Input
Amino acid sequence: MNIKPKVGVVSCSGECCSLGTLSRVATRLVLEELRPDQTVTICLPLFLAGETEEHGFAKEHPTIAVDGCGKLCAKKAVTKYSKEPVYAVDVEATIKEWKISPPKDRRVLNAKDVKTARRLAEQLAERVDAIQEAA
Amino acid sequence: MKKPVLVIPCSGIGKSFGSISRDATFRVCDDLRKGKSDTLCLSLLVMGDDEAKERVSTSKCITVDGCPLECSLHNVKRSGGNVVATFKVIDVLKENRGFKPKKVTFLDDDGENLSKILAEKIAAKVDELMEESR
Output
C-alpha cells in the first residue's frame, strides 16, 4: 500500500494587513473543512524560531506556502530552513488577478471576503490533491 | 507625537488561543487604542527585515502569546525588541474558567469574549506605557 505523505500548508502570520488574515483563513479552511485528513500545518513563527524538530517539518512533508503579500515570508522561511515548497501562493497577486479587492477589516472578514477565502482554499485543496497524486 | 506602542501577537494557527491573541491585538490597534498602538508581522520580523527590527528596538513592545511556547516573546527579544510587557491567553483563560474556546478559523462566542477581555487588559497597559512616556 502506498501511504501518501500529508501535505504541510504553511501560512504567513501577516498581522500587518487584511491579506494576512485572508491567507490564514484560506489555510484553516483547507485544514478544517476541505482536506482535514490530508493536511497538517505549523505556526510560521514557531517554525522560524524552532530548531531541528520544527525545521524537519518541511523535510517530512511536501509543503504549500501561503503568503499574504509579495514579501513571501512563508515561502522564504520554508525554503531557507527546510526545502523549497512544492507550491507557493501570493494571495495579493492572486486576488489582483481575480480583480477582487483586499478585505477592508483585518479582524473580521465579511461575507464577500469569506467567499474569496473559500475560493483560495479550493485552489489550495486542488494542489494538495495534485501533490498527493504525484507522490 | 508619541511613538505608538507595538502590540505583537503570536498568531498561532493550530489552536484557538493563537486566534484569540491575534483578534485581541486587532481590537486594540484598530479600535480601542487606534493611533496609540500598532502591530507588525511577526514572521517578517523573524525573517530579519531591517525595518521591522528597527521598529521593535525603538518602540515599547507588548507581546501576546497563545501557548506556553511564547513564540512572540522569544522572537521579539531575539530580534532586539524592547519588550516591556507580555500577555498570555492562557492566563486570561485561567481567570475566566467558564469559557471554553474551540474554534480556530472564526472564533466562537467564548473565543470572542476572551478576546474582548484580553484586549481591554492590553489597552490598559498601552495607556500606562503612554503615560510613562510623558
